[in-house]
Specification:
Number of helices: 3
Order of helices and strands: HEEEHH
Shape: rod-shaped
Strand order of the largest sheet: 1-2-3
CATH superfamily: Nucleoid-associated protein YbaB-like domain
Strand content: 5-15%
Largest sheet: 3 strands, antiparallel
Structural class: alpha+beta
CATH class: Alpha Beta
Length: 146
């Protein structure tokens, strides 16, 4: 005779819930780390500094008054170089966060916005799955008279 609980009969619910809680906590911690990550680069002998974040792109551009000695073309090139270097720094940080939290994600993600969207989507899917699982467990509990 088949078990009326199906595959749920062999589940260690306590271990499943502990593992789920740990994963949710890891995910929340990774989201905070991603939100706090700041890429930074300084170029032109320290005269130009750029900061960027995953959500805000370039969030800070500091140009020392001594940078006025450069031509407009040189300054433009240095600013672009700083932006690219700050973005590369941010990408390294995000890659480290993802690898540490999730064992690594596809390095082709590059652009952090789709990665953040995928993280949010995964969180919503996990929340739905947990809701469904808890609903099923509650239904079985009632069926068994507990």
């Amino acid at each position: 005779m088949d078990n009326p609980l199906g595959n749920f009969a062999n589940i260690n619910v306590e271990a499943f819930l502990r593992d789920s809680e740990r994963r949710v906590a890891d995910f929340a911690a990774a989201q905070k780390e991603v939100a706090a990550a700041v890429g930074q680069a300084t170029v032109a002998d320290g005269h130009i500094t750029v900061q960027c974040t995953a959500r805000g792109g370039v969030t800070r551009l500091d140009i020392d008054p001594r940078a006025k000695r450069m031509s407009v073309q040189e300054m433009s090139e240095e600013i672009l170089a700083a932006i690219h270097a700050a973005d590369a720094d941010l990408q390294r940080q995000l890659s480290t966060i993802m690898t540490g939290s999730f064992g690594g994600l596809d390095p082709a993600l590059g652009d952090p916005d789709p990665a953040l969207a995928k993280m949010t989507e995964a969180q919503h899917a996990f929340d739905r799955m947990m809701g469904d699982a808890m609903g099923e467990l509650d239904r079985m509990r009632k069926k068994l008279g507990y």
